[in-house]
Amino acid sequence: MLGDLLLFYTALLSLSEIGLGSLLHTMQVPFRGQFLSLNQSFLLSHALFQSKGEMKLLPLKISSGAALLKSLSPSGRRLTPMIAIAIQGSLFNLGSLLFGRNLIGAIFGSILLGIWPSIQGFAFYGVLFGKDVLLAAEALPHAWALPAVFGLFVGIKSILAICAVLAAYFLPSSVFLRYQDLICGVEQRPKKESSPSSFLRVFRSPLFLALLFLVSWYYWVVLGDLYSLSWFLLRLAASTFLSIYVVRLALQSFWVRKKMQFLWRRCFGQEIDEDLLKNGQAFELLQDYIKENRVVQD
């Protein structure tokens, strides 16, 4: 029973990440990552309540498996979202381990999960930019107000995260069934042939561009040091390329591929092949699996 529950929510989370993510991208909805994190909180909370707290690491296993299955979609092979899904699942699981596999534990875990998308961006770019971004931030007018603004943002995210848990706890089963139908009805956004690489996508990130502008302003306008600015830009390009290469190498490791094959065999009784990946059939198989194994809330 618990094994079937684990597979179902793993497939549903990966399908929602691909389908809902494609829908939000098509509609050009801002803060898409925040919506997807709330969706993950909702599903992990629902799975936790359905399991009656019998599996300690259920949220972590669901999220890790969903991150792997998401990579099978042509439109889902992006490194940062895959890492985010797995880390957010572990943070949610931390809440249930500390406060119990109940409503309180789910709320605390959901708050940690909801805050992470903001922290991940600053943490990743903080590693790339180093101390330069801190020096530039201190040179800003009214720099003292930045922690307060960040705190307000975290507070709003926490309230939304709590709402996601309460929705999973109190909404009737008919609503969750309609949610499953909605996810299964979303069409996959085809991958563009001219889709940019992971390296180029980093340079298109609004947060990356904002921090790049901030540090460039600091060296060029405040200090007037073009030599340091040039050296910083070279270091930034090299560290970005290296970090993406290391992560991609890890995702292509033997352990990751073996785990993906195991999950796919459990769900569909077949091996993953290249034709499955090229034709986008993984998304359709996930949809069929959800339709055939619909979960009704007890």
The SS-based structural class is: mainly alpha
The count of helical stretches stands at: 14
Distance between the first and last residues' Cα: 14 Å
Helix fraction, binned, reads over 70%
The low-pLDDT segments are none
This entry's quaternary arrangement is single chain
Overall tally of domains:
3
Cα Rg: 21 Å
Query: How do the helices and strands follow one another from N- to C-terminus?
Result: HHHHHHHHHHHHHH
Mean pLDDT: 79
- The global form is globular
Q: How would you describe the overall organization of this protein?
A:
The chain has 298 residues and is an all-alpha fold. It has 3 domains: 1-188, no CATH class; 197-224; 226-297. It is built from 14 helices and no strands. α1 runs antiparallel to α2 (32-50) and α1 crosses α14. The chain is globular. The mean pLDDT is 79.
Helices and strands in order:
Elements: H1 2-26, H2 32-50, H3 58-70, H4 79-99, H5 103-129, H6 131-138, H7 146-170, H8 173-185, H9 198-202, H10 206-222, H11 226-251, H12 254-268, H13 274-278, H14 281-292
TL;DR?
By secondary structure, the protein is mostly helical.
Question: Characteristics of this structure?
Answer:
298 residues, mainly alpha, 3 domains
